[in-house]
Design goal:
Elements lengths: L5 H11 L30 H7 L6 E3 L13 H4 L11 E3 L7 E2 L10 E4 L2 E4 L7 E6 L13 E6 L13 H4 L13 H10 L4 E4 L8 H13 L3 E6 L5 H10 L2 E5 L5 H8 L4 H13 L2 E8 L7 H14 L6 E5 L14 H13 L5 E4 L9 E2 L6 E6 L2 E5 L1 E2 L2 E2 L12
Parallel strand pairs: 7-8, 8-9, 9-10, 10-11, 11-12, 12-13
Antiparallel strand pairs: 1-2, 2-3, 4-5, 6-7, 14-15, 15-16, 17-18
Helix pairs in contact: 5-6, 6-7, 7-9, 10-11
Amino acid sequence: MQELSRRDLLDLAARSGVALGAAGLAGPLGAAFTPAAPAAPPRREKLSELARRAPVARYWTSSAAPTAACTDCHEAAAIKGRSYVHRPAVVRCQLCAHECTILPGERGRCRTRINTGGELRTLVYGRPITEQVDPIEKKPFYHFLPGAAAFSLATSGCPLHCRFCQNWEISQAAPEAYAAVRRSASEMADRAAARRAAVVAFTYNEPTVFIEYLVDIARAARARGLRPVLVSCGFMSEAPLAEMIEVLDGIKIDLKGLSPEFYRKVTGAELAPVLRSIRQVARAGRHLEIVNLVVPTLNDAPAMLRELVRWVAGEVGPDVPLHFTRFHPDYQLLNLPPTPVATLEAAWELARGEGLRYVYVGNVPGHPGNHTHCPACGAICIERRGFFTTAVRLRDGACTACGARLAGVWS
């Protein structure tokens, strides 16, 4: 019997209507759920068909637009004294910090947005390729409705190309690589409500690439009393992030290191836009958590970790939870070992020594760094085992031992 790859399994799941999680094919809360099969199994669509059916995207400009100006795409100094007419129409995507310039029939680096006759269209609207109910702690959110069930969904595509990506089968895939059951935003919110999930989580790939779908689902979810949250790399532009902030209740951003060189070499992106996004979320007052995946030999130097900790403390404050997560070999970095627990513990102690109040060790089940301690008296307010909350000792967001309030969204 031939063994199937994870990509084959995901495609088979999409064709048969089975819900799978990109981070694990049998998630702890989703394993028992089998949704009704669609009337007809979906087929894998060709790119030309996807493009024909794709709705117009937001956040772009085109050289064919009546109001187009050269400075929409070019620095003024670079075009001074020159004139040029683009034939055919060129599109400049303004969704993420890459700001891809896209010729007709071509796509941006995320693979999900295509120039069709001078219009930018989204190939992933209404095409989720995975959905699953996870514990909220798996995202990870540790200060947002502990123990809540999170209806988690994704499309394909990502503007980053992280060499260590654990979800590379979908994040680095083009939309036409998978068959998908087309679902409206309202239908996705209904599916979340039917699973009795308190949270709708946009996760697994970079959700910014399906911002139009995300915003519609989030609004529909809120109308049903659900809480939408985002799990993101933080590489979006300011205006799209502002729109998402308006419809989200929580945002987790991966800060992969505080080195521009590391970002360019390992993710194919720039650091500065990620820092800008973190500041923007913090200023907006939305619940924010930050994760740093500690990768041996690449971003685990004590000086880099110290710089990251001090940036978080100085820019967004000591109450933003910071997770140091263990790396496991995956994708293009199979040659590296898992992060030594001692390295994570050193980062944990460093951050607490610098005044951060909520610091965690991730991907190390049973480690005491998984628990939430009261910053005033040190009592354990939330106990966790793996991705599950086993005890909550909070009353109206306050420590039951001393009465001190903890930062977070608790109800």
